Amino acid sequence: MKAKTNPARKDKVKMIFLLILSFLVIATGSLWAFTSIRKGDIGGAISGGIIALIILIFALFVFIRGSKDMKQGHPLEDERSKRVMEKAMSMAFIVTLYLLLGIGWLSEDIIKFRDVSQATGAAIGGMAILFAIFWLYFNKKEI
Amino acid sequence: MKTRIKELRARYNLTQDDLARKVGVRRETIVFLEQGKYNPSLKLAHDVAKVLKTRIEELFSFD
């Protein structure tokens, strides 16, 4: 029979994984911003910086909340928080499809993207912002 | 959805934190449950009813 994993240990591993992942994303965003500055691309630097900053704020929020809960003996996530996360993820995904459509349409003459990577960055940043907004919304709403 | 969680919790001198720890959820889940803003799974409803020594149908009502 398979031994049952200790939930507290599982939560600790999850937090470490989340920290590493956040660090990697922040490092990538910062690197993007710095290389853009060196190339003289202010738009790229701003978008890279914004993405890194959003992830940093969100990661800090999740980390502080999680460590506080772990200290008090509560699980990192439960059925409600999972349901909120699922709803926020699915809504962010659906709205991002329209965002991509909008970016594609606007990039023809209104927004001038330097290259594909800048447009992709805008889409990823937009999805991250949308996810944060939907998470905050569903976390307060009756579900 | 209406619940009697707050009333029964007070009867057994349990804080939201105590109840959350006993059923293995976050404290805010208990807050939302008490406000009737969260429809729990059958498992959670069963666990809460068990801790509060009552039955699910006495704990939750849908008018």
Provide the domain count of chain A. 2
Q: How do the SSEs of chain B run, as a string of H and E?
A: EHHHHHE
Distance between the termini of chain A: 36 Å
How many alpha or pi helices of chain B?
5
Termini gap of chain B: 7 Å
- Residue share in helix of chain B: 55-70%
Major sheet strand order of chain B:
1-2
Instruction: Give the assembly state of these chains.
Output: heterodimer
Q: Give the CATH architecture of chain B.
A: Orthogonal Bundle
**Could you report the average pLDDT of chain A, rounded to the nearest whole number?**
83
Q: What's the shape of chain B?
A: globular
CATH class identity of chain B: Mainly Alpha
Number of strands of chain A: 0
CATH superfamily of chain B: lambda repressor-like DNA-binding domains
Q: What overall form of chain A do the CA principal axes indicate?
A: flat
**SS-based class of chain B:** mainly alpha
The ordered string of helix (H) and strand (E) elements of chain A is HHHH
CATH T-level topology of chain B: 434 Repressor (Amino-terminal Domain)
Alpha-carbon Rg of chain B, integer = 10 Å
Helical residue percent band of chain A: over 70%
Molecular structure report:
The complex is a heterodimer of chains A (143) and B (63). Chain A is mostly helical and 143 residues long. Chain A has two domains: 1-77; 78-143, no CATH class. In chain A, 81% of the residues lie in helices and 0% in strands. Chain B is mostly helical and 63 residues long. Helix content of chain B is 59%, strand content 6%. Chain B contains five helices and two strands. Chain B has helices at residues 5-11, 16-23, 27-34, 42-51, 56-59, and strands at 2-3, 60-61. The radius of gyration of chain B is 10 Å and the shape is globular. The mean pLDDT of chain B is 92. Chains A and B meet through helix 3 of A and helix 2 and helix 3 of B.
Give the topology:
The complex is a heterodimer of chains A (143) and B (63).
Chain A: H1 7-39, H2 42-71, H3 79-106, H4 116-140
Helix pairs in contact in A: 1-2, 2-4, 3-4
Chain B: E1 2-3, H1 5-11, H2 16-23, H3 27-34, H4 42-51, H5 56-59, E2 60-61
Antiparallel strand pairs in B: 1-2
Helix pairs in contact in B: 2-3
